[in-house]
Amino acid sequence: MHQIHNEMDATYGKRRMLSELKDMGFTVGLEKVRRWMKKLNLVAKRPKLHRYPSGGLASVIAPNKLNRQFNPEQLNTYWSGDITYIRTQQGWLYLAIIMDLCSRRVISWAFSDKPNSELTTRALRLAVQKRRACRNVVFHSDQGCQYTSAVYQSSLKEFGVESSMSRAGNCLDNAVTERFFRSLKSEQ
């Protein structure tokens, strides 16, 4: 268990440790793994809470035009986007994606070491370049400062993309993108 704990940089909790031990041929239960980890003082590291800076300018909050209608019938009618953080060997990186809700495919993505509007604008530019015909597209996101910034909002206008935003603190309004990130992180 010490070897697994060290090899995985102390990121495995009891469930992942159990899975690893079973893969190695051991027959143990979750409770026994929990007790042994406690006895050996093997504690999994938890990711730090990320605090995002609040901007000084007033934010542009767009109405929720998507209203949880996650199954449009045509491509390039509704896009959805969000940002998440991903742990790499070099440290934390931020990933911004844009997904077409009709096909449920990621049409663009961008990485950065900072979760700012430059990151989201880069992902938007890539989506517009890839899809070309993006007039009358509704882009749905949360109310994060990266999406409410003047820079991002002017980019949406420049490309003829309409803005839609989830209600404050309601991740279910952007459930498809949130679910994609959950799958991505569980497969990591």
Task: Describe the structure in your own words.
Helix content is 36%, strand content 20%. The chain is an alpha/beta fold and 188 residues long. The mean pLDDT is 85. One of its GO terms (biological process) is DNA integration. This is Integrase core domain protein. Residues 68-188 form the Integrase catalytic domain.
Secondary-structure map with pairings?
Blueprint: H1 2-7, H2 14-23, H3 30-39, E1 78-88, E2 91-100, E3 105-112, H4 117-131, E4 138-141, H5 145-148, H6 150-159, E5 162-165, H7 175-186
Parallel strand pairs: 1-4, 4-5
Antiparallel strand pairs: 1-2, 2-3
Helix pairs in contact: 2-3, 4-6
The counted number of beta strands is: 5
Arrangement of strands in the largest sheet = 3-2-1-4-5
In terms of DSSP E residues, the strand content is 15-25%
CATH C-level category of the largest domain: Alpha Beta
| CATH fold type of the largest domain | Nucleotidyltransferase, domain 5
Helical residue percent?
25-40%
Uncertain segments = none
CATH architecture of the largest domain: 2-Layer Sandwich
Mean pLDDT: 85
Distance between the termini: 21 Å
The CATH superfamily label of the largest domain reads Ribonuclease H-like superfamily/Ribonuclease H
The helix count comes to 7
**What count of structural domains?**
2
Radius of gyration, in angstroms, nearest whole number? 20 Å
SSE pattern: HHHEEEHEHHEH
